[in-house]
């Protein structure tokens, strides 16, 4: 579904991604792990189109998407939930969903605002509340739901658990697992324990390079990787 081939990304003079490659098959949840500043967010932003690679290529179902503007990639089916969520604070929950709506995608069940409120009772209860008045956990659920309103086939979740209480993290895990029956997912996390529980495979990134890849079982049982790069 998604193929990232040897991408190199700079911020000005700063050489941040130094040849990152990864792939995600249809229906998988794959995680991208690594410490603060390792390059997870930059990888996600490159896939969406905010930080196009200076070298290397990104494909979504064999279509070259690197170098295209963000709005085109979103139309092609990339959904992105940024680390800081970017909820529209002055809009209600329902309005947040309505503004993000894109036409349904052939071969996928449509995510209309009505279906989203049906599937997320938490949001249905809060539908007239303004985004800025929600708790961190509620905002995270809304951020995911708003990405769904764009009817993505591939979803990027950047640190969905950050700053959330364990009970909310558990609920998010259930939500993400349920979504993977319809949508392919790449999740970036510092919380390796959470990410490895919900994903089948993972990549570990360090100083802008993938230093390890393997099944979630392999990553959980590899003490060297855990200590050196994940520090669970
Ligand atoms: P975090 O969990 O903190 O988001 P990360 O793994 O997502 O970490 P990135 O945010 O991708 O890491 O950052 C990778 C490197 O790029 C870091 O060294 C960071 O300081 C640098 N960096 C990130 N954004 C910029 C920017 N806009 N300009 C310059 N350097 C940046």
Number of strands: 10
CATH architecture of the domain at 1-77 and 193-232: 3-Layer(aba) Sandwich
What is the helical fraction, as a range of percent? 25-40%
Number of helices: 10
Q: What's the pLDDT, averaged over the residues? A: 94
CATH class group of the domain at 1-77 and 193-232? Alpha Beta
The CATH topology annotation of the domain at 1-77 and 193-232 reads as Rossmann fold
CATH superfamily of the domain at 1-77 and 193-232: P-loop containing nucleotide triphosphate hydrolases
Weakly predicted, low-confidence segments? none
Please, what is the oligomeric state?
single chain
Bound molecules: adenosine-5'-triphosphate
Spatial strand order of the main sheet: 6-7-8-3-9-10
The major sheet is characterized as: 6 strands, mixed
Helix/strand order: EEEHEEHEHHHHEHEHEEHH
Radius of gyration from CA coordinates: 17 Å
Structural classification: alpha/beta
Overall shape: it is globular
Strand content: 25-35%
Question: What is the rounded distance between the termini?
Answer: 30 Å
């Amino acid at each position: 579904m998604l193929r990232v081939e040897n991408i190199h990304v700079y911020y000005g003079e700063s050489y941040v991604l130094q040849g990152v490659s990864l792939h995600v098959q249809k229906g998988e949840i794959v995680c991208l792990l690594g410490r603060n500043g390792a390059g997870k967010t930059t990888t996600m932003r490159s896939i969406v189109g905010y930080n196009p690679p200076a070298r290397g290529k990104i494909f979504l179902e064999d279509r070259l998407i690197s170098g295209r503007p963000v709005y085109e990639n979103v139309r092609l089916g990339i959904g992105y939930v940024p680390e800081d969520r970017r909820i529209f604070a002055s809009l209600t929950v329902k309005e947040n969903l309505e503004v993000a709506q894109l036409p349904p995608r052939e071969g996928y069940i449509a995510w209309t605002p009505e279906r989203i409120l049906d599937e997320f009772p938490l949001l249905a209860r809060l539908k007239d509340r303004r985004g800025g008045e929600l708790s961190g956990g509620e905002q995270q659920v809304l951020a995911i739901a708003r990405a769904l309103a764009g009817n993505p086939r591939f979803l990027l979740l950047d640190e969905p658990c950050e700053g959330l209480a364990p009970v909310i993290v558990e609920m998010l895990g259930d939500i993400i697992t349920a979504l993977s029956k319809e949508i392919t997912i790449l999740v970036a996390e510092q919380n390796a324990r959470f990410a490895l529980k919900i994903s089948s495979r993972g990549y570990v990134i360090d100083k802008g390079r993938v230093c390890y890849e393997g099944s979630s079982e392999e990553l959980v049982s590899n003490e060297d990787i855990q200590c050196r790069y994940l520090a669970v």
